[in-house]
Specification:
Length: 199
């Protein structure tokens, strides 16, 4: 549910082959060509999702492990009101893993946070706010992955839970029937008025 789920039906399904630009990260957590940074495996949004952390200044680049804007709220998307929020609902395939990743990132006690969605957040209370968010991680009540995660392996997707029904066709049909009924009643009322005039 939510604004992002509704809008994603209008986004074209594009795929990009990154080819040889993708490199395997070293096991020890170092980030090549980025001294002082380490990577952390933060699955949930996707199986191989990673976040980056700069230990010296406490900068966390969380990617889509969580967001700093509520992507389920159209007003918040439009205003970009900064807040800690769960990752994009229609694109997060394992909510239990997402919650654990948020808890792992909260243990870092970052001083500033940048995410894939929303403005960067910082301040003396940001570590405490992230801990509260992680402790009360907002799991979705419904959606394709709310109850059962996607199953993946190194080769990709093994299985997906069934897709939920899409209410939009029923809504459009109901609006169409209501509009047609209104037009028919208007035409009948106009015919009755014309008949009264003729009689």
């Amino acid at each position: 549910g939510g604004a992002m789920a509704f809008m994603c039906r209008f986004i074209p399904q594009l795929r990009t082959n990154l080819g040889d630009r993708v490199r395997v990260l070293p096991d020890e957590g170092a980030v090549p060509t980025m001294p002082g940074w380490k990577w952390l495996h933060t699955p949930g949004h996707s199986p191989g999702h990673v976040s980056l952390y700069h230990v010296e200044d406490g900068t966390l680049l969380a990617g889509d492990a969580f967001a700093t804007v509520d992507l389920d709220s159209l007003p918040d998307i439009l205003t970009q009101h900064p807040q800690l929020a769960r990752p994009p609902s229609p694109f997060t395939c394992d909510w239990q893993a997402a919650r654990e990743s948020a808890r792992d990132l909260a243990r870092l006690e970052p001083r500033q946070i940048g995410c894939g969605h929303g403005k960067p957040v910082f301040g003396p209370d940001i570590a405490a706010r992230l801990q509260i968010f992680a402790d009360h991680f907002p799991m979705p009540a419904r959606g394709r992955y709310a109850v059962e995660p996607a199953r993946t392996d190194a080769q990709g997707v093994e299985s997906l839970p069934p897709a939920p029904s899409d209410p939009l066709p029923r809504i459009v049909a109901t609006i169409g029937i209501a509009a047609l009924t209104g037009l028919l009643f208007a035409a009948m009322a106009n015919r009755v008025r014309n008949w009264d005039r003729e009689v």
